Protein backbone atom coordinates (compact mmCIF):
# COMPACT_ATOMS: atom_id res chain seq x y z
CA UNK A 1 0.00 0.00 0.00
CA UNK A 2 1.75 3.13 -1.21
CA UNK A 3 1.37 6.21 -3.39
CA UNK A 4 2.54 5.59 -6.99
CA UNK A 5 6.19 6.63 -7.38
CA UNK A 6 5.51 9.29 -10.02
CA UNK A 7 3.78 11.44 -7.35
CA UNK A 8 6.70 11.31 -4.95
CA UNK A 9 9.12 12.16 -7.78
CA UNK A 10 7.04 15.18 -8.87
CA UNK A 11 6.68 16.49 -5.35
CA UNK A 12 10.06 15.48 -3.94
CA UNK A 13 10.87 19.07 -2.93
CA UNK A 14 7.38 19.94 -1.69
CA UNK A 15 6.53 20.34 1.96
CA UNK A 16 2.96 21.28 1.01
CA UNK A 17 1.37 19.02 -1.59
CA UNK A 18 -1.31 21.43 -2.76
CA UNK A 19 -1.51 24.97 -4.21
CA UNK A 20 -0.81 26.69 -0.89
CA UNK A 21 2.41 28.49 -0.01
CA UNK A 22 3.90 28.35 3.49
CA UNK A 23 2.50 31.87 3.97
CA UNK A 24 -1.04 30.82 3.13
CA UNK A 25 -0.82 27.83 5.45
CA UNK A 26 0.36 30.18 8.20
CA UNK A 27 -2.44 32.67 7.44
CA UNK A 28 -4.97 29.87 7.79
CA UNK A 29 -3.47 28.69 11.10
CA UNK A 30 -3.63 32.26 12.43
CA UNK A 31 -7.16 32.85 11.15
CA UNK A 32 -8.49 29.84 13.07
CA UNK A 33 -7.34 31.31 16.43
CA UNK A 34 -6.17 27.90 17.64
CA UNK A 35 -5.73 27.44 21.40
CA UNK A 36 -2.59 25.63 22.64
CA UNK A 37 -3.42 21.96 23.11
CA UNK A 38 -5.98 21.87 20.26
CA UNK A 39 -6.23 18.22 19.22
CA UNK A 40 -5.98 17.76 15.44
CA UNK A 41 -6.59 14.83 13.11
CA UNK A 42 -5.21 15.36 9.57
CA UNK A 43 -6.32 12.71 7.07
CA UNK A 44 -4.06 12.42 3.99
CA UNK A 45 -1.57 14.68 5.76
CA UNK A 46 1.16 14.37 3.11
CA UNK A 47 4.53 15.52 4.52
CA UNK A 48 2.87 16.83 7.67
CA UNK A 49 3.54 20.55 7.20
CA UNK A 50 0.17 21.65 8.59
CA UNK A 51 0.54 19.67 11.81
CA UNK A 52 4.24 20.41 12.29
CA UNK A 53 4.09 24.17 11.72
CA UNK A 54 0.86 24.64 13.65
CA UNK A 55 2.36 22.63 16.54
CA UNK A 56 5.33 25.02 16.47
CA UNK A 57 3.30 28.21 16.00
CA UNK A 58 0.12 27.47 17.97
CA UNK A 59 0.91 24.52 20.24
CA UNK A 60 -1.55 22.12 18.62
CA UNK A 61 -1.15 18.36 19.11
CA UNK A 62 -2.34 15.52 16.94
CA UNK A 63 -2.02 12.83 14.37
CA UNK A 64 -1.59 12.69 10.61
CA UNK A 65 -2.46 9.68 8.47
CA UNK A 66 -1.12 9.18 4.95
CA UNK A 67 -0.73 6.33 2.48
CA UNK A 68 2.70 7.45 1.23
CA UNK A 69 5.63 5.90 3.10
CA UNK A 70 7.93 8.59 1.66
CA UNK A 71 5.72 11.47 2.84
CA UNK A 72 5.15 9.95 6.29
CA UNK A 73 8.92 9.56 6.72
CA UNK A 74 9.38 13.21 5.76
CA UNK A 75 6.61 14.29 8.12
CA UNK A 76 8.38 12.54 11.04
CA UNK A 77 11.69 14.15 10.06
CA UNK A 78 10.02 17.58 9.84
CA UNK A 79 8.48 17.14 13.31
CA UNK A 80 11.94 16.36 14.71
CA UNK A 81 13.45 19.31 12.84
CA UNK A 82 10.88 21.73 14.25
CA UNK A 83 11.14 20.24 17.76
CA UNK A 84 7.50 19.13 17.89
CA UNK A 85 7.92 15.34 17.68
CA UNK A 86 6.46 15.03 21.20
CA UNK A 87 3.24 16.77 20.09
CA UNK A 88 2.50 15.34 16.64
CA UNK A 89 2.66 11.80 15.28
CA UNK A 90 2.25 10.26 11.86
CA UNK A 91 0.66 6.97 10.88
CA UNK A 92 1.23 5.21 7.58
CA UNK A 93 -2.09 3.87 6.35
CA UNK A 94 -5.28 4.26 4.39
CA UNK A 95 -7.22 7.27 5.70
CA UNK A 96 -10.49 6.08 4.14
CA UNK A 97 -12.63 5.09 7.10
CA UNK A 98 -10.08 6.30 9.65
CA UNK A 99 -11.74 7.51 12.87
CA UNK A 100 -9.85 9.03 15.82
CA UNK A 101 -9.91 6.91 19.01
CA UNK A 102 -10.86 10.05 21.03
CA UNK A 103 -12.87 13.00 19.63
CA UNK A 104 -10.64 15.81 18.34
CA UNK A 105 -11.07 19.61 18.24
CA UNK A 106 -10.14 19.96 14.57
CA UNK A 107 -10.31 17.38 11.79
CA UNK A 108 -8.86 18.09 8.36
CA UNK A 109 -8.71 16.63 4.89
CA UNK A 110 -6.76 19.02 2.69
CA UNK A 111 -6.61 18.08 -0.97
CA UNK A 112 -7.73 14.47 -0.81
CA UNK A 113 -11.53 14.27 -0.60
CA UNK A 114 -11.49 11.10 -2.69
CA UNK A 115 -10.74 9.31 0.61
CA UNK A 116 -14.42 9.80 1.49
CA UNK A 117 -15.72 9.41 -2.05
CA UNK A 118 -16.12 13.18 -2.48
CA UNK A 119 -16.83 16.27 -0.40
CA UNK A 120 -20.01 15.01 1.27
CA UNK A 121 -18.53 11.65 2.20
CA UNK A 122 -15.37 13.26 3.54
CA UNK A 123 -17.34 15.69 5.70
CA UNK A 124 -19.22 12.66 7.09
CA UNK A 125 -15.95 10.81 7.67
CA UNK A 126 -14.37 13.75 9.54
CA UNK A 127 -17.59 14.23 11.55
CA UNK A 128 -17.05 10.80 13.11
CA UNK A 129 -13.80 11.99 14.73
CA UNK A 130 -14.78 15.38 16.20
CA UNK A 131 -16.34 16.67 19.40
CA UNK A 132 -19.37 18.98 19.31
CA UNK A 133 -18.42 22.50 18.25
CA UNK A 134 -15.22 21.33 16.56
CA UNK A 135 -13.69 22.82 13.43
CA UNK A 136 -13.41 20.87 10.22
CA UNK A 137 -11.08 21.77 7.32
CA UNK A 138 -11.73 20.72 3.75
CA UNK A 139 -9.19 21.59 1.03
CA UNK A 140 -10.81 21.32 -2.37
CA UNK A 141 -10.56 22.55 -5.98
CA UNK A 142 -13.34 24.50 -7.69
CA UNK A 143 -13.89 26.19 -11.04
CA UNK A 144 -12.68 29.77 -11.09
CA UNK A 145 -14.00 29.83 -14.65
CA UNK A 146 -16.12 27.11 -16.27
CA UNK A 147 -13.99 25.21 -18.82
CA UNK A 148 -15.37 25.56 -22.36
CA UNK A 149 -15.23 21.84 -23.23
CA UNK A 150 -14.21 18.40 -22.09
CA UNK A 151 -10.67 18.77 -23.42
CA UNK A 152 -10.15 21.82 -21.21
CA UNK A 153 -11.59 20.00 -18.19
CA UNK A 154 -9.30 17.03 -18.78
CA UNK A 155 -6.31 19.34 -19.13
CA UNK A 156 -7.22 20.56 -15.64
CA UNK A 157 -6.99 16.93 -14.39
CA UNK A 158 -10.77 16.82 -14.05
CA UNK A 159 -12.51 14.04 -15.97
CA UNK A 160 -15.75 15.94 -16.44
CA UNK A 161 -16.61 19.58 -15.73
CA UNK A 162 -19.52 18.48 -13.53
CA UNK A 163 -17.04 16.98 -11.03
CA UNK A 164 -16.24 20.47 -9.67
CA UNK A 165 -18.45 23.35 -8.55
CA UNK A 166 -17.77 27.06 -8.39
CA UNK A 167 -16.44 28.47 -5.09
CA UNK A 168 -19.95 29.72 -4.30
CA UNK A 169 -21.42 26.34 -5.26
CA UNK A 170 -18.98 24.55 -2.96
CA UNK A 171 -19.84 26.89 -0.07
CA UNK A 172 -23.55 26.26 -0.72
CA UNK A 173 -22.86 22.52 -0.69
CA UNK A 174 -21.32 22.81 2.79
CA UNK A 175 -24.49 24.64 3.86
CA UNK A 176 -26.68 21.89 2.43
CA UNK A 177 -24.64 19.38 4.43
CA UNK A 178 -25.51 21.30 7.61
CA UNK A 179 -22.30 23.27 8.11
CA UNK A 180 -21.43 26.96 8.43
CA UNK A 181 -18.35 28.05 6.52
CA UNK A 182 -16.57 30.06 9.24
CA UNK A 183 -13.26 30.82 7.47
CA UNK A 184 -11.51 30.22 4.19
CA UNK A 185 -8.12 30.83 2.59
CA UNK A 186 -7.92 30.52 -1.18
CA UNK A 187 -5.01 29.76 -3.50
CA UNK A 188 -4.12 32.18 -6.29
CA UNK A 189 -2.14 31.86 -9.50
CA UNK A 190 1.19 32.42 -7.76
CA UNK A 191 0.56 29.85 -5.07
CA UNK A 192 -0.57 27.46 -7.83
CA UNK A 193 2.80 28.06 -9.53
CA UNK A 194 4.65 27.12 -6.35
CA UNK A 195 2.83 23.78 -6.44
CA UNK A 196 2.89 22.97 -10.16
CA UNK A 197 5.97 24.77 -11.50
CA UNK A 198 8.08 23.39 -8.64
CA UNK A 199 7.27 19.90 -9.97
CA UNK A 200 9.05 20.55 -13.25
CA UNK A 201 12.48 21.15 -11.76
CA UNK A 202 12.02 18.09 -9.56
CA UNK A 203 11.18 15.99 -12.63
CA UNK A 204 14.00 17.42 -14.74
CA UNK A 205 16.63 16.83 -12.06
CA UNK A 206 15.33 13.32 -11.49
CA UNK A 207 15.32 12.57 -15.24
CA UNK A 208 18.91 13.76 -15.65
CA UNK A 209 19.95 11.45 -12.82
CA UNK A 210 17.83 8.44 -13.96
CA UNK A 211 17.74 8.41 -17.79
CA UNK A 212 17.24 4.63 -17.95
CA UNK A 213 14.50 4.33 -15.34
CA UNK A 214 11.20 2.69 -16.33
CA UNK A 215 9.43 6.03 -15.73
CA UNK A 216 11.90 8.08 -17.82
CA UNK A 217 9.79 8.22 -21.01
CA UNK A 218 6.68 9.28 -19.10
CA UNK A 219 8.62 11.98 -17.26
CA UNK A 220 10.19 13.23 -20.53
CA UNK A 221 6.72 13.54 -22.08
CA UNK A 222 5.35 15.33 -19.03
CA UNK A 223 8.24 17.83 -19.04
CA UNK A 224 7.60 18.61 -22.70
CA UNK A 225 3.85 19.11 -22.34
CA UNK A 226 2.80 19.94 -18.78
CA UNK A 227 4.09 23.54 -18.45
CA UNK A 228 2.17 25.00 -21.43
CA UNK A 229 -0.90 22.92 -20.63
CA UNK A 230 -0.83 24.20 -17.06
CA UNK A 231 -0.46 27.83 -18.18
CA UNK A 232 -3.29 27.47 -20.68
CA UNK A 233 -5.78 25.59 -18.52
CA UNK A 234 -5.33 24.76 -14.84
CA UNK A 235 -3.78 28.10 -13.89
CA UNK A 236 -6.70 29.94 -15.52
CA UNK A 237 -9.63 27.72 -14.69
CA UNK A 238 -9.05 25.94 -11.41
CA UNK A 239 -9.29 27.56 -8.01
CA UNK A 240 -8.44 25.83 -4.78
CA UNK A 241 -9.05 26.65 -1.17
CA UNK A 242 -9.29 25.42 2.38
CA UNK A 243 -12.72 25.94 3.92
CA UNK A 244 -13.24 25.87 7.70
CA UNK A 245 -16.59 24.43 8.75
CA UNK A 246 -18.61 24.13 11.94
CA UNK A 247 -21.73 21.97 12.23
CA UNK A 248 -24.95 23.97 12.72
N1 LIG B 1 -2.82 17.30 2.94
C1 LIG B 1 -1.47 17.25 2.41
C2 LIG B 1 -1.32 16.30 1.22
C3 LIG B 1 -2.25 16.58 0.05
S1 LIG B 1 -1.81 15.62 -1.41
C4 LIG B 1 -0.99 18.62 2.04
O1 LIG B 1 -1.83 19.51 1.92
O2 LIG B 1 0.20 18.82 1.85
C5 LIG B 1 -2.81 14.17 -1.26
C6 LIG B 1 -2.26 13.20 -0.23
O3 LIG B 1 -3.19 12.15 -0.10
C7 LIG B 1 -0.93 12.55 -0.56
O4 LIG B 1 -0.04 12.77 0.50
C8 LIG B 1 -1.26 11.06 -0.70
O5 LIG B 1 -0.21 10.21 -0.27
C9 LIG B 1 -2.46 10.96 0.20
N2 LIG B 1 -3.40 9.86 -0.03
C10 LIG B 1 -3.96 9.49 -1.20
N3 LIG B 1 -4.83 8.47 -0.99
C11 LIG B 1 -4.83 8.23 0.36
C12 LIG B 1 -5.52 7.31 1.21
N4 LIG B 1 -6.40 6.45 0.72
N5 LIG B 1 -5.26 7.35 2.54
C13 LIG B 1 -4.35 8.23 3.04
N6 LIG B 1 -3.68 9.11 2.29
C14 LIG B 1 -3.92 9.12 0.97
Quick structural gist:
The protein is an alpha/beta fold and 248 residues long.
Question: Which fold does the CATH topology refer to?
Answer: Rossmann fold
**Average of pLDDT:** 97
The figure for the number of domains is: 1
- Give every kind of bound small molecule, once each: S-adenosyl-L-homocysteine
Strand content: 15-25%
Instruction: State the name of the first-level CATH class.
Output: Alpha Beta
Structural class: alpha/beta
How would the global form be characterised?
globular
- Helix percent reads 40-55%
Q: Biggest sheet, open or closed, and with what strands and sense? A: 7 strands, mixed
The CATH architecture assignment turns out to be: 3-Layer(aba) Sandwich
For the secondary structure, the number of strands is: 7
Enumerate the strands of the largest sheet in spatial order, edge to edge or round the barrel.
Answer: 3-2-1-4-5-7-6
Description:
β1, α3 and β2 form a beta-alpha-beta unit. The protein has a single domain, classed as Rossmann fold (3-Layer(aba) Sandwich). The chain has a 7-stranded mixed beta sheet with strand order 3-2-1-4-5-7-6, sandwiched between helices. It is globular. By secondary structure, it is α/β, with parallel strands linked by helices. 43% of the residues lie in helices and 22% in strands. S-adenosyl-L-homocysteine binds next to β2.
Task: List descriptors.
single chain; 248 residues; alpha/beta; 43% helix; binds S-adenosyl-L-homocysteine
What is the element layout, followed by pairings?
Blueprint: H1 5-10, H2 22-31, E1 39-43, H3 49-58, E2 61-66, H4 69-81, E3 88-92, E4 104-110, H5 119-127, E5 130-143, H6 150-155, H7 167-176, E6 179-186, H8 189-209, H9 216-237, E7 238-247
Parallel strand pairs: 1-2, 1-4, 2-3, 4-5
Antiparallel strand pairs: 5-7, 6-7
The structure holds S-adenosyl-L-homocysteine (SAH).
S-adenosyl-L-homocysteine (SAH) binds at residues 3, 16-18, 44-46, 49, 65-68, 71, 94-96, 110-112, 115.
